[in-house]
Every structure is written in structure tokens, then in C-alpha cells.
Design goal:
By secondary structure, the chain is of the alpha/beta class. It is built from ten helices and nine strands. The longest helix has 18 residues. The chain is globular and about 45 Å long.
Length: 215
């Protein structure tokens, strides 16, 4: 898939799953469960043990429409290593212009992190495809509405504090999509290898997104 197709997938589904798997085998099972539930954009954080190898093996095993990205990227060196390992999009908790430039060089979608209006605009001006608003745990959906007021042209992806109770409010506030971690792929479900629970939770998230969009 090219960059435009991946971005379309992020926006159309409205959910990016954030996973901290213990290995490639576990991740592949999780990806299969998420796909079955309709979530196809999966972010593997760099805090995952052997993250690059996990990404490499996941890309070999996972076919479209699954898109495997990398998260918690802090610098262009890490972004390049992840892209060479197979990452199809790059997410960061911060805005690093050099990382954005590196992703543009490789034609890979990039979603840098920002919080204040100044940071959001800076990320967008530097070439962000979507700006990750992080953290939103304490601020809630209202921060997205506040940002979209003066900045309607910027696509926002809130991460932190997004669960089944709040996802609809984030979408209604103007988020193009949301980043979801433990509320979607819980540590408990991973330990129990309860992939059916992950599948049903993924489907529930997409249903809430669809309802919030009025579909």
C-alpha cells in the first residue's frame, strides 16, 4: 500500500491500535483478531522488546489491508531503522522536524505529537500528515474541539484516555481518528490469549466511531 492508501485507511476506520506485544508471534495473532474486528492500522511501539524484529516479522506475515506502523519514535535514526524493517507509517509523541523530513523522503505517512496550538501548527507546517494530540488523558475530548475551532484544516489524532466510553466524543469533537492502546488490546487479554475478546472490542470501537460520524 502507498502512503495515500494507508492514510485513507486510518481515516476511514477511525482507529489506530497501539500495541506493546512481547514478540512477533503474539503480534501476528493480535493483528488477525483486530482485522477480524475491522481495525487494520496497527502501531507497534518502540518500547516493545525487539520492536524492529517484531515489525519485520509482522510485515512478512500480515497482508493488506493490515498496515503495520511504528510508534514512540523520537528521532530520524529510529524512524529510518523502522521503515527499513517494514514500518508503513510513523507515529511520535513529539514533533521532530528531522523525523518528519525523513518520513517524507521515504514517502511514509508521519503523525508527530503535539499538545498546544503552537505545537500543532508547527507539526503541520513541517509536513505532518496527521497530528497526534498527546496526551489527552487529562484534557478529554474538549481539547480537540478547542483546537479544531481555529485550526479546522489540521487533521488530529488524540491518544490517551480513549476508550469505549469516550471514543464517540473524540470523533464528534473533530478527531479524524483516535489512537487506542490498552482499552483495545488489554494486557489481560494478551496474557490469556483471548483473541476473541480483542476482536469483539475492535468491532465495538468501530461501531462507536460509525455512530459518532452519523453513519
Amino acid at each position: 500500500m502507498n502512503a495515500r492508501e494507508i492514510l485513507h485507511q486510518v481515516e476511514s476506520t477511525g482507529v489506530v491500535a497501539i500495541i506493546r506485544a512481547s514478540g512477533s508471534g503474539e503480534l501476528i495473532d493480535v493483528v488477525a483478531a483486530l482485522r477480524a474486528g475491522g481495525v487494520t492500522c496497527i502501531e507497534v511501539t518502540m518500547t516493545t522488546p525487539d520492536a524492529l524484529e517484531v515489525i519485520r516479522q509482522a510485515r512478512k506475515a500480515c497482508e493488506p489491508p493490515a498496515a503495520i506502523g511504528v510508534g514512540s519514535v523520537l528521532d530520524p535514526e529510529t524512524a529510518r531503522a523502522a521503515i527499513l524493517a517494514g514500518a508503513q507509517f510513523v507515529v511520535s509523541p513529539i514533533t521532530c522536524p528531522d523525523t518528519i523530513a525523513l518520513c517524507k523522503r521515504y514517502s511514509v505517512p508521519v503523525m508527530p505529537g503535539a499538545m498546544t496550538p503552537t505545537e500543532v501548527v508547527r507539526a503541520w507546517q513541517n509536513g505532518a500528515d496527521i497530528v497526534k494530540v498527546f496526551p489527552t488523558s487529562s484534557l478529554g475530548p474538549a481539547v480537540i474541539k478547542d483546537l479544531k475551532g481555529p485550526l479546522p484544516q489540521i487533521k488530529l489524532l488524540p491518544t490517551g484516555g480513549v476508550d469505549l466510553d469516550t471514543v464517540g466524543d473524540f470523533i464528534k469533537a473533530g478527531a479524524v481518528a483516535v489512537g487506542v492502546g490498552g482499552a483495545l488490546v488489554s494486557a489481560k487479554a494478551l496474557r490469556a490469549r483471548d483473541f476473541e475478546s480483542i476482536r469483539s472490542t475492535a468491532a465495538a470501537f468501530l461501531e462507536r466511531v460509525s455512530q459518532a460520524r452519523g453513519n
